[in-house]
Amino acid sequence: MSKFIHVLYGFDCRIFQKINRYFHLYLLNLFFRTITHFGGARFTIISTILLFLTAWSRETRLLAISSALALASSHIPVHLAKEFFPRKRPYMTIEKTNILENPLQDHSFPSGHTTAIFAVLTPYILTIPTFSLVLILVGVCVGVSRIYLGLHYPSDVVFGAILGILAGCLSYSLLLM
């Protein structure tokens, strides 16, 4: 089993390095430094509150509540996973990683930003399919930004997306089905 884990880790590192190596490109840097905040606590909490306050119907308010419930509930498994799987961030273990000043110091697995954005977006993706492609692209860009900025391995991002989608689907089914 350990050889399988080693092979997966090597694959994770290679994908990470392919994405992180473009860090010096100004426009990519500007884009990823901006969009990464869409998955941050400040943005996701404020956006769910604003969506609730500006809701024009009961269904829209339920959608905003579903999104907020998904966001809140998704952080429990993220916190537990970070405790049980104390994986160091890639910039701590991979040489020549490009990184921002004052990088995060907590554990890498899973990506909380990716979990949060997918948790918030999933109820909207399920309810308003005409916007789903744009919303999915926003979520994917947040996830890629975490790798690009040297803060997460690809598997951190994938697992975070899965957690966020599961939380979003659960809250959607509880409130809107």
UniProtKB/TrEMBL annotation:
The chain crosses the membrane at residues 30-56, 131-151, 157-176. Keywords: Cell membrane, Hydrolase, Membrane, Transmembrane, Transmembrane helix. It is found in: Cell membrane. This is Phosphatase PAP2 family protein. One of its GO terms (molecular function) is hydrolase activity. Its main location: membrane. It is a multi-pass membrane protein. SMART domains: acidPPc (SM00014).
